[in-house]
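Annotated sample (chain length 86).
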Amino acid sequence: MPRKFKSGDWVKVKGKLTAPKMQVLKYVPKKDSILGLVDNDTYLECIWYNSGERNCEVFHQNKLIKTIETGGLFRTFLPTPKLILT
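Output written by the structure step:
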């Protein structure tokens, strides 16, 4: 299965309105309990912050969607451009 995300991407869990924005850290190997095969390309380790506390969890890549807006602890605000009419 091809990899859908890369490290640093911002993602959310599909179908949950209150899901936090998370940042992808890396793909992690996960062993299938039935077949005993190790899968390196489908499980992601993601982090997010809740009330200043760092949370980390592993998700299947098909349960995540990429978010358009990015952001983390620090946000940069761009000044609104001033219109000059002459």
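Annotation: Strands lie at 10-13, 22-27, 30-31, 38-39, 43-50, 53-60, 64-66.
Annotation: The CA atoms of residues 45 and 58 lie 4 Å apart.
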